[in-house]
Amino acid sequence: MSIYIIAGICLYIASYAFYVTFSHGLGHKAEYLQLRRFIPCAILAVLPMYLVNESLLSPQYLLSFLVGVSWITAYPLFYYLTYHKISSDFGFHLDTVFGLYIIGWLISLKLLVQAFNIFPTITLSLISIMEYLLLALPLFQASYYLLYGTCVSTGAVTMIFETYTNEVIEYFKSMPLAVRIGTP
Fold first, then answer.
1. CB of 116 within 8 A of CB of 59?
2. Given this model, what pLDDT does residue 170 score?
3. Contact between 58 and 124 (Cβ < 8 Å)
4. What is this structure's pTM?
5. Which pLDDT belongs to residue 180?
6. Contacts 24+ apart (CB under 8 A), 149-157
7. What is the pLDDT, as a whole number, of residue 44?
8. Which end of the chain is more exposed for a tag (fewer CB within 10 A), N or C?
């Protein structure tokens, strides 16, 4: 039991420290509110593993943890790197809350499938697909930041949605072959 408590406390401290570090211009009221808000989220992230006495370091749950951590860190980090010098205040507590909940939800789904043995291969495959789809957005944000040196903005998303298929094909055709293949 103590390992689960330590894991929950570490997850809580790490997520709160990340939130405070990569937020800008937070008032004490906002800091204290999140100080309380992140406690149940961190508990719910480790509670499923505790209830079934499953190892926290089990490889089958590491992707779920990675997905949650990527949601906690991706947008707040890239927004901070882009705007910390010009924006007076910002904080992304919901990214942290959602990331912690994702960890608990995905692990809970896997544990439920294992406990009730309902089409385990198909169901776990669907959960894995869902994990990779959830991981796609933070990876897109990281790729966007690495390419353009700025976080994803409303204008960028609008531009992406207004791009026609033929424009995308033409863009890739204009790139050198080595870039299209993904090799230097």
1. no
2. 83
3. no
4. 0.80
5. 66
6. 149/82, 150/78, 150/82, 151/75, 151/78, 151/79, 151/81, 151/82, 151/83, 152/75, 152/78
7. 92
8. C
The span from the CA of 155 to the CA of 153, in Å, is: 5
Could you tell me if 50 and 118 are in contact, meaning their C-beta atoms sit under 8 angstroms apart? no
Closest CA to 47 of 103, 97, 99: 103
Alpha-carbon distance 115 to 41, whole Å? 23
Residue owning tokens 């406990």? 115
pLDDT at 106 over 60: yes
Which amino acid makes up residue 103? I
Q: Residue 86: what residue type?
A: I
Q: CA 79 to CA 86: how far, in whole Å? A: 11
- Per residue in 80-91, pLDDT (tens digit) is 999 888 877 788
Q: How far apart are the first and last CA of the chain?
A: 50
Task: At 166, list the tokens.
Answer: 């033929």
